[in-house]
Specification:
The complex is a heterodimer of chains A (175) and B (476). With 175 residues, chain A is mainly alpha-helical. Chain A has two domains: 100 residues; 38 residues. Chain A contains seven helices and no strands. In chain A, α2 packs antiparallel against α3. The model of chain A has no long low-confidence stretch (mean pLDDT 77). Chain B is an all-alpha fold and 476 residues long. Chain B has a domain of 215 residues. The longest helix of chain B has 32 residues. Chain B is globular, with a radius of gyration of 21 Å. Classes of the chains: A mainly alpha (175), B mainly alpha (476). At the A-B interface, α7 of A face α1, α6, α7, α8 and α10 of B.
Chain lengths: 175, 476
């Protein structure tokens, strides 16, 4: 029995798309976070099939793993909306997606009307290099940017969360 | 040596957060001021060759050779001046909270390092990385006071910025599949032969769309009024003065010129977006009653002028665009400094409540007149010359309609600024402001400095145009 990889890819792409749409359309934050994790898992499998295991590992560990944990931890700190507000919010939310079918139709029309030739024979061959080589020798300058982003993120946590906690403690003490 | 403009602020932030924390906390503000001044003085004093040299040790450490030209000079100088002014205003607005001022200084230095990195970038991916550094620092600086409006403004900026980021990153990925490279040099040579390739067209559309969002151009301007008006005063100055210019406008100029993107279709698109931004921004500014919100819409209109110059594409137009970029960084910062002074002294930004405060705040009133006359393009101030250059370039290139739009929108600019002056500074003093006092030196010094630059640049235009601005196109 032969295994049809094309069918497998199409099936996974369909699942990937369905999980993505589910993530956006669902009204519950928790379900949405889980939907995002499922989307990431589908993408991970696709990346493995496309022979990009390192990208797959990063996608699985960071997007499907770490980010989902952060999302769920944050959601656990929120409180649910009142029952009376549920229907009102649902209608308001659904209005945002009125144009979604039209956008999907337009995107499909563009894709079919003008093929993108992604397998262009004139493509430049990419050099066979390892990730370490690319990061350390080709993109070392960008590592400074990454250091800057991490430091900025640290200050973000201090400014937005630590200060707020301090203010909350002060208010509690005053009471 | 221009790499030092990234490494020194980074090292300063690291040192300020070492164990000698308490001492550094007191010194941080002064360290930030000195670094901004040092950057400005060195940019003015040192020749271009100095900035393009790289000591062997630095090269072996970074494996990177910097790229500096006249346009980069303009950006470095703008970053230094606006950073300096923003810090002084932070000192004025934050006053007695040492911890807040320390955090603000650190974030400002990180944002400056990110913007300097973006300016020296030699490829699309580095440009993207440093663009993100500046964006992340900006998000935090907007939400700095944790207020509801500020968080809402940050959220809007964050969401639209994420869309822009996704578009730019997708464009980089698509260009990689076709060209195998992200360096401006390679991309410029392969864009011509591949200009009809649908993948390249899609990538260019995504790239321009992303940078239009970052520039706050109409119809991608939704985040600008909220982010500018809800941010703390010092952050508003930084955002309007330089962050949007660097992450949006400068990146757009660099990408379009370095990658030879200015085909007929791109030119039509860029000029149409610019013209719509000029008009819509000016019309929207007319209907505002919040001081900072009006300035935000005015920024959208003025950025439209810069992009119009880019779209025209001639030497003269680009010189005008770069000159207007610098001028706008200066006079819009000055207007936000004035707004900060008015808000702090009167406790409101609502122009319907204010009135006649020029008698009580004469320096703020005078410098705001200088800034608004320059924005409206009144001679001999700097804004007049940069607008004139762009309009002449549009006319000479045969874009008569665009030249007329630019002239008519200048009249709109004059109208909304006259309305602002009448409602805030001129006329009879509004009740409740009898005991109003002028702002202190922390805000008057930057206001006077920016007003002096606005007047000085206007008077130096013959020398500037021939020696500095016109050569910009030839080396872009």
């Amino acid at each position: 029995m032969t295994f049809d990889f094309n069918m497998m890819n199409i099936f996974l792409l369909a699942l990937f798309l369905a999980a993505g749409v589910w993530t956006v359309l669902t009204s519950r934050l928790l379900i949405s976070a889980i939907g995002l994790a499922v989307t990431s898992i589908m993408l991970t499998i696709l990346l493995f099939l496309m022979k990009a295991p390192l990208a797959g590992v990063f996608e699985l560990s960071v997007c499907a793993g770490l980010i989902t944990v952060v999302f769920i931890s944050t959601i656990s700190l929120t409180k649910p909306v009142e029952k009376s507000e549920v229907l009102q919010l649902k209608m308001k939310r659904l209005k945002r997606f009125v144009f979604l079918p039209l956008l999907l139709f337009l995107a499909a029309w563009v894709l079919f009307a003008k093929p993108l030739h992604l397998t262009n024979p004139a493509q430049v061959p990419v050099e066979q290099t390892t990730l370490q080589h690319v990061l350390w020798f080709a993109r070392r300058f960008d590592l400074i940017g990454q250091i800057l982003i991490i430091l900025t993120g640290v200050f973000g946590v201090i400014v937005l969360f630590k200060t707020k906690t301090g203010q909350a403690e002060k208010q509690d003490n005053e009471r | 040596m221009s790499v030092l403009l990234i490494l020194v602020p980074l090292a300063a932030v690291l040192i300020m957060n070492l164990p000698l924390h308490k001492l550094m906390r007191k010194l941080a503000f002064w360290v930030g001021l000195v670094l901004c001044m040092l950057q400005a003085v060195l940019i003015i004093r040192m020749p271009i060759g100095f900035w393009n040299t790289q000591p062997d040790l630095l090269y072996r450490l970074l494996l990177f050779r910097p790229f500096t030209d006249n346009l980069a000079f303009v950006m470095f100088l703008s970053i230094a001046i606006v950073g300096f002014v923003s810090l002084l205003v932070a000192r004025y607005a934050i006053e007695n909270d040492g911890s807040k001022l320390f955090n603000f200084t650190n974030l400002l230095l990180l944002a400056m390092a990110g913007m300097n990195g973006l300016v020296v970038s030699r490829d699309l991916f580095s440009l993207y990385v440093f663009l993100e550094v500046s964006a992340v620092a900006s998000f935090i600086l907007i939400a700095f006071n944790n207020g509801k409006d500020a968080l809402e403004g940050t959220f809007k900026y964050l969401v639209l910025s994420a869309v822009a980021t996704a578009m730019i990153l997708s464009a980089i990925g698509l260009l990689m599949t076709v060209t195998g490279s992200v360096s401006f040099k390679t991309l410029s040579s392969v864009m011509g032969p591949n200009s009809g390739n649908p993948v390249v067209l899609l990538a260019v559309a995504l790239l321009l769309g992303g940078l239009f969002i970052k520039s706050g151009l109409v119809p991608f301007h939704g985040w600008v009024p909220d982010a500018y008006s809800s941010a703390p005063s010092a952050t508003s100055i930084l955002l309007a003065g330089i962050v949007t210019k660097t992450t949006g406008v400068y990146a757009l100029i660099r990408v379009v010129t370095k990658m030879n993107l200015l085909t007929h279709q791109v030119q039509v698109l860029v000029m149409a977006v610019a013209a719509v931004s000029i008009v819509v921004g000016a019309l929207a500014a007319l209907g505002q009653s919040d001081f900072k919100r009006m300035l935000a819409y005015s920024s959208i209109s003025q950025v439209g002028y810069i992009i119009l110059g880019l779209g025209i594409g001639s030497n003269l137009a680009l010189a005008g665009a770069v000159f207007h970029l610098f001028n706008h960084a200066i006079f819009k910062s000055l207007l936000f400094v004035n707004a900060a002074a008015v808000e702090k002294q009167t406790g409101t930004r609502n122009m319907d409540i204010l009135g006649g405060i020029s008698d009580k705040m004469p320096v703020t009133g005078f410098t705001s007149v200088i800034a608004f006359l320059s924005t409206a393009g009144i001679p001999p101030l700097s804004g007049f010359w940069s607008k004139l250059i762009i309009i002449i370039a549009a006319w000479k290139a045969g874009f008569h309609v665009y030249a007329l739009i630019a002239i008519l929108a200048s009249l709109l600019t004059l109208a909304y600024f006259l309305s602002m002056q009448r409602r805030v500074f001129f006329g009879k003093l509004a009740s409740g402001f009898e005991d109003l006092k002028e702002a202190n030196l922390w805000i008057l010094v930057p206001a006077c400095l920016l007003a002096a630059i606005t007047i000085g640049l206007g008077l130096c235009i013959p020398w500037l145009l021939n020696s500095f601005l016109l050569p910009i196109r030839s080396i872009l």
